[in-house]
Amino acid sequence: MSENKDQKFVYDFTEGNKDLKDLLGGKGANLAEMTNLGLPVPPGFTITTEACKVYLDSGEEPPALRDEVSAHLDALEQAMGKRLGQADDPLLVSVRSGAKFSMPGMMDTVLNIGLSDASVTGLAAQAGDERFAWDSYRRLIQMFGRTVLGVDGELFEDALDEAKEAKKVTVDTDLDAADLKKLVKQFKKIVKTEAGRDFPQDPREQMDLAIHAVFDSWNGDRAKLYRRQERIPHDLGTAVNVCSMVFGNLGPDSGTGVAFTRDPASGHQGVYGDYLQNAQGEDVVAGIRNTVPLAELESIDKASYDRLMQIMETLETHYKDLCDIEFTIERGQLWMLQTRVGKRTAGAAFRIATQLVDQGLIDEAEALQRVNGAQLAQLMFPRFDENARTELLGRGIAASPGAAVGKAVFDSYTAVKWSRSGEKVILIRRETNPDDLDGMIAAEGILTSRGGKTSHAAVVARGMGKTCVCGAEELEVDTKRRRLTVGGTVIEEGDVVSIDGSTGKVYLGEVPVVPSPVVEYFEGRMHAGADDADELVQAVHRVMAYADRVRRLRVRANADNAEDALRARRFGAQGIGLCRTEHMFLGERREMVEKLILADTDGEREEALKELLPLQKKDFVELFEAMDGLPVTVRLLDPPLHEFLPDITELSVRVALAEARKDHNENDLRLLQAVHRLHEQNPMLGLRGVRLGLVIPGLFTMQVRAIAEAAAQRIEAKGDPRAEIMIPLVGTVQELEIVRDEAEQVIAEVQRQTGVELKLALGTMIELPRAALTAGQIAEAAQFFSFGTNDLTQTVWGFSRDDVEASFFTAYLEKGIFGVSPFETIDKDGVGSLVRSAVVAGRATRPDLKLGICGEHGGDPESVHFFHEVGLDYVSCSPFRIPVARLEAGRAAAQSSGSDSR
Prior knowledge:
Blueprint: E1 10-12, H1 21-36, E2 44-47, H2 49-58, H3 65-80, E3 93-99, E4 109-113, H4 120-127, H5 130-147, H6 153-167, H7 177-195, H8 203-217, H9 221-230, E5 238-244, E6 255-262, E7 269-277, H10 281-286, E8 292-293, H11 297-300, H12 302-319, E9 323-330, E10 333-341, H13 346-358, H14 364-369, H15 373-379, E11 383-384, E12 391-395, E13 397-400, E14 403-409, H16 412-420, E15 425-429, H17 437-442, E16 445-448, H18 456-464, E17 467-470, E18 476-478, E19 483-486, E20 489-492, E21 496-500, E22 505-508, E23 513-514, H19 517-522, H20 532-550, E24 554-558, H21 562-570, E25 576-580, H22 590-598, H23 602-626, E26 631-635, H24 648-660, H25 666-678, H26 690-695, H27 699-716, E27 722-727, H28 733-754, E28 761-766, H29 769-773, H30 775-778, E29 784-787, H31 789-797, H32 801-807, H33 809-814, H34 831-845, E30 850-853, H35 861-870, E31 874-877, H36 882-901
Parallel strand pairs: 14-15, 15-16, 16-17, 24-25, 24-31, 25-26, 26-27, 27-28, 28-29, 29-30, 30-31
Antiparallel strand pairs: 1-2, 2-5, 3-4, 3-5, 6-7, 6-9, 7-8, 9-10, 11-23, 12-22, 13-17, 14-21, 18-19, 19-20, 21-22
């Protein structure tokens, strides 16, 4: 990235605002906004994300940056009346990361910069508190050593634990100034030994190195992993915030805390958060010391509490959303260190969205943007059965809801390893830190014995939608011996535990689960009422009703039988977008298909088709009845032949053994000859779909006849069948024309025989690159297209889905080649460009061409937005994903409407 000579790389907090997140990062933009609102923010300045990009691209900071930082530092020193690191009265600053999107704990922060051997005594004199000064100094060396110089953080932790053991105390606040002086000396030795250099005594060198460390942390392993998990772009860079220090560790009249304007777990209004006396900010989020509920601040320092409540109301009204706030009290003076729109659980997101509508802060369109399909999917997961017999181990803080069951593991490595082997695990730690992110992602849930609702574990778990219980103090976690002890019970690694993130309860063994109330609502078994579950259902109902009113995309289901179709209809399906008829040929009908494939004569083939016809007709009658009045798209037989034939190796062995016993089986011999004849090296690209229909005479016409006769029967029964016949795997219009002509002849014949007028649409799947590239020609013979994005993704990428996901997809995701699997979210640049061009070409030929998608992408939130954008008429997905697709279709419509109005 080239540098513009006139480019500004540093902004004072008085210069920015909340809309400059791209440039100033979320933290910097919001510090500026709070400053503009007249709230008590310590003075400081922000180094932009553009400076970070130059640094990461070139390996050096922009040449102009040092002078800009010097100018802003000079202004800060004048405002504060003291200089950075001044011996008798030092200005101290924090250097903190701040990307556009919140990445809690994933990047680096260093506090107390400016302290040195020369200035620590000056700080002690100014504060009148020697212990405070040496505590601040040891914190600086510890954070700087770990963050900037790459020293193993456990070395500092071990030294701190040894100091507490020697003093026979359990918390660091019980260490006095003399103890901390010794600890500072020991910490400096650790730095010298591990980093190969002395801890820097020059305050400006400390600040510059810390700024570079924050820039570098953007590309740290844990930050990259978190961005992949949260789908945050890798090219944004981070801003750096340099803020004058205020101190929460100056004694009992000081402290630090985190507050939420509403409960991030439930969405309920009230006083939520954590407070810790005589502490700095990292003590709260790290969960090292257990906090007190924020409400207790009222009795500790009522003036600060009342001021904080006023500020929280101001911020929520201003941001029109749940705000997450970090604050420090320095000897009775309240300071605001950060605010951001807070992460919340899925249930809280829906409740808060509707609450804010009722309060007149946002409208329904904005409420729709405050929730998403991933959150709705979380709410559809099961929960623990309240009537089940359980063995309660203990109780902690309900930090992120859900019902999670798994084997206990005590470190991130084991969590990942066992998870990859198919085990469900619960990650148990005293407290988590950013290095535990791999394990947190792999685990079903997270359990910690320390920390509160604002600890690292709680914040990250909520962001990921993971079940989490924090601060279960009665549980003694021994990570070295890999065990959890509570009372007389010992949980060893591998023992099963269950955690309830909605109540904070921890159980021994596996607790059975029951359906979610949200699923019961969609199934029509629950209605809005007064209790908490119904309150959530009511919020979901309101948001879904608005989404359904505004969405343009219709939502259909992938369903192959009447039972699935009825369930899909209850979930809001507006038809069936994909009925896979091959699923109707499994089980006892497999032998009939086998007989059809192996038929040597026309008579044998006609006999096999005659057996299949009434069975197929019965299937379709049931399906059309279940979806009466709604479209049902039936895909003619598509799978590769090997799915209906015996395994060639097993059959060869069976025949060989029979020959050895001189027990000849003519049917097996004939079957083996046919299997050899039809065997394909790559059956997914072989004789399947339309090719099968053209090679086996009568197969597709039998299916078309079954569909037509079933439709006629339903019409005679006063039903309203709306069948659509879809020809799969077409690569050229000639294939489609041949099958279409045969189908039209069969439909005409059924009309003559039944006297019932049939209106059956004929269309095709677009699942091969050539079909997409020649969509204009194919549209001449098709009334509708349905994009089969599963096969289209395979053929565009040259991937065999069944093979590559297990072999190298993990490596591709880790290396950042994929942000997400192209089978999960549509590849807009490749597969998406073919879909887009096929839409344009198809409609140019046939303006009334109906367009849909029936691959797995039809239920993926991000992909639904793409399909709305390119102009499809509907998406089709599995029944369980229908509510998600409905919601995202509404969100896509509201977003595009908002963009149009702007």
